[in-house]
Amino acid sequence: MCYTIVMIDVNTGEEIKTLYKFVEIKGGKRIEKFKTPDIKRALRFHKWYVARYRQGLLMEILPEKKVYDWKEKKVSYTF
Question: Can you tell me the distance from the alpha carbon of 68 to that of 74, in angstroms, rounded to the nearest whole number?
Answer without folding.
Answer: 6
